[in-house]
Amino acid sequence: MVDALRRLVDAGMGVYSLTRERAEQLVDDLSRRGELAGEDRESLVRQLVERGQSERAALEAFIADRVAWALRHQPLATRDDLAALEQRLMAQIRAATGARDGTAGSGGGRDGEGGA
After folding, report:
1. How is 10-33 classified by DSSP, letter by letter?
2. How far is CA 105 from the centre of its chain?
3. pTM value?
4. Long-range contacts, stretch 50-55, CB < 8 angstroms, 24+ apart
5. Distance between CA atoms of 48 and 54, rounded to whole angstroms?
6. Which positions ≥6 away from 10 have C-beta within 8 Å?
7. Over the stretch 27-75, which tens digit does the pLDDT of each residue have?
8. Top-confidence residue, 14 or 114
9. CB under 8 Å to 88, separation ≥6 — which residues?
């Protein structure tokens, strides 16, 4: 009887999404059909909920592991990589702007503007 319920849960909706309320409904249905003794109710509900939690935790750990593996094996830029690239780009922009204006490193205005 317990195995029948487990197969039903596994096949129908899966243990990953089994809430306590749903487990209680399934166990109550078994009790009404006479497939489960009343004293076994709470034990079976607890077992189903614990199994659902452990299966969900295992699935989450598996997904996290696979995502971490994929990220480690992809040529993706890190935040540090992007910050370093931004600094290099800003330095090149400052150098190019200064060279175009004739003020590279002087911090002044354009040549030929203002004063003499």
Report:
1. HHHT-GGG--HHHHHHHHHHHHHT
2. 46
3. 0.47
4. 51/6, 51/15, 51/18, 52/15, 52/16, 52/17, 52/18, 52/19, 52/23, 55/15, 55/16
5. 10
6. none
7. 888 888 877 777 778 888 888 888 888 888 888 889 889 988 988 888 8
8. 14
9. none
Alpha-carbon distance of 3 to 73, in angstroms, equals: 41
Quick one: CA torsion of 27, 28, 32, 38, rounded to 10 degrees? 80
Burial of 89 from C-beta contacts in 10 A (0-12 / 13-18 / 19+): exposed
Domain ranges of the chain: 2-72, 77-104
In single-letter form, the type of residue at position 70 comes to A
**68 three-class SS:** helix
Tell me which residue has tokens 């317990």: 2
> Token pair of 111, please?
């040549």
